[in-house]
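Report of the visiting student (M.T.), summer placement. My assignment was to run the structure pipeline on a short list of targets and document each run. The first record concerns Lipoprotein.
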Amino acid sequence: MNRLSAVLIILLSMGCNKSTLDLSTIDFSQPASEYLKDISPSKGEMQYGHWELIKNNSAEDDLELKLVGKEEVSKVYHITGPSDKSQFSFFGYPSIGMMGIEIVEYQNKIAFYSIYPEGSNTSEILLKLKQKLGEPSGVVLDTLAKTNILLQPILKTLPKDDIIYFTDEYDQQVSFPEHYIWKRNGMIYQFTLLQGSEVVSSNKLLIFGSSKTGSHELNL
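After the run finished, the structure tokens were exported:
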């Protein structure tokens, strides 16, 4: 191989390498273009209006999403192809193969994203979230009978301090967080466990702007 051929191969190789965005590093106050300019996700689609988190009149502390400002435009990126998804991670962990990534751009800011990291990384991701954000602002509990086959992988995955044991009139029961929720610096972070019979099958991370978001999904 002559020198010119070697140089061409190196240049072609460099051209094929795509930038990788770790979603955990996003500063939501910065322009979305700072993070998306070197990324080539699947073509985004326009959404007219934005979603606002508002208080539900029927419950003082509950929040609900309402679509407002339909004259405004948000851009929603659905990232599903393996090549596109390989450009994104969370704390360095990639998204699982079967699930897509969603990013919403609103007024040139990233207003929302969701990603499904591999379930085997649940413990590490939860620890990193607590290190980054502190203790959760709240949790949404789920309860299973102590004999339920879905419980064992949860007990192996979650911190012991997050598990509650009790007995009701039917059986011994175990409560555990299904959703971890943080409210920090005008943002809502939600980490959701998806259960499996052998391992925690996957987990879902949702990040919302506090008042305005282009997202159409909230699992609180």
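Confidence is low (pLDDT under 50) at residues 4-17, 210-220. The chain has one domain: 19-209. I thank the supervising group for their guidance throughout the placement.
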